[in-house]
Specification:
This protein has helices at 3-8, 12-23, 27-37, 56-69, 93-96, 124-134, 173-177, 196-210, 234-251, 253-281, 285-296, 302-311; strands spanning 44-49, 74-80, 106-112, 138-142, 159-164, 185-188, 223-225. It is of the alpha/beta class. The protein folds into 3 domains: 1-39, no CATH class; 40-251, Rossmann fold (3-Layer(aba) Sandwich), CATH 3.40.50.300; 264-314, no CATH class. Helix 2 packs across helix 3 (27-37), helix 2 (12-23) packs antiparallel against helix 6 and helix 4 packs across helix 9. The longest helix has 29 residues, at 253-281.
Length: 315
């Protein structure tokens, strides 16, 4: 039986196997994903991002536990940074998510970025589709937490949670990172630390400056204080994710956003396919090496070289 059929029947091993094929760029993965696509689009995808050390994994663990109490099936994708030297990643999120790691209705999968910028890995969207088709109601995506490269999560998640903590050195790390504008919910974790009220006030000030006051149909991001380790405030965060999804649907923003995302993903796939076609079918390794040598020797510029390659498509 095909992996896609087994996934639709609730086979956990099949879902894990297809994720491995996706990570390894196995050609078989694409055919299986095609079969799953019509069965996706039901899950609520929630992104959790913020600077390292803010307790994102603990927050994800407690949020998953909260959704499970409400009878929701949960998938977790935790993206870890990949070493530029060995190509490996720590992938230790099962250890940090001890509350739900053994729950049969929680699927946890770690993946390395493999040098992809933006806080996510190349196969993250495919992983989300697999979990969606597998039947997960909630899919939590924890990003690398590398500051300003985290903005890709807004292209993937329906609801984005920005996590901050007091005492990080700079007043508001999210502002420094340039990701303040992508947050739908702001969580100030480790709220027992000194300076938590100052962080909340500064976030409120920045949000008031960046969000219009006279827009009745605009979402106003809440700021929630939590102590994720103890579970304090987690119920409020979970409730706000539900409210945000309801807001998107009631205002029609959900359909608008899905249309934009479908267009963006389609064009990205076309670009990638064209790039692979040009390199694999129209440029052998010897010709590529020769062009690179000429570019290095300043005999030709890279723009002219690329234009020459593209010109072959018109013949």
């Amino acid at each position: 039986m095909r992996l896609s059929n087994r996934i639709l029947e609730g086979d956990k091993r099949a879902a894990a196997r297809l994720m491995t094929l996706v990570e390894n760029n196995d050609p078989c993965a694409k055919d299986e994903l095609k079969k799953l696509y019509q069965h996706t689009g039901k899950a609520h995808v929630i992104g959790i991002t913020g600077p390292p050390g803010t307790g994102k994994s603990t927050l994800v663990d407690k949020l998953a536990l909260e959704y499970r109490k409400k009878g929701k099936s949960v998938g977790i994708i935790a993206v870890d940074p990949t070493s530029p030297f060995t190509g490996g990643a720590f992938l230790g999120d099962r250890i940090r998510m001890s509350d739900v790691a053994m729950d049969p209705d929680v699927f946890i999968r770690s993946m390395g970025t493999r040098q992809k910028l933006g806080g996510l890995a190349k196969g993250t969207n495919d992983f989300i589709r697999i979990l969606d088709a597998y039947g997960k109601d909630i899919i939590l995506v924890e990003t690398v937490g590398a500051g300003q490269s985290e903005v890709d999560i807004v292209k993937t998640a329906h609801t984005t949670i920005i996590v901050e903590i007091p005492g990080m050195g700079d007043d508001i790390q999210a502002v420094k990172a340039g990701i303040l504008e992508i947050g739908d919910i702001f969580v100030v974790n480790k709220a027992d630390r000194e300076g938590v009220e100052r962080v909340v006030r500064e976030l409120q000030t920045m949000l008031e400056m960046s969000h219009p006051h006279d827009c009745e149909d605009c979402w106003k991001p809440p700021i929630i204080k939590t102590m994720a380790r103890d579970g304090d405030g987690i119920g409020d965060v979970a409730s706000q994710t539900v409210e945000h999804m309801d807001f998107l649907r009631k205002t029609g923003r959900f359909e608008e956003e899905m249309k934009k995302r479908a267009r963006t993903e389609f064009l990205e796939i076309v670009r990638e396919s064209l790039s692979e076609y040009l390199l694999d079918k129209m440029l052998d390794q010897g010709e590529l090496d020769e062009l690179v040598s000429k570019i290095l020797a300043r005999e030709i510029d890279p723009y002219t070289a690329s234009e020459g390659l593209l010109a072959r498509l018109e013949k």
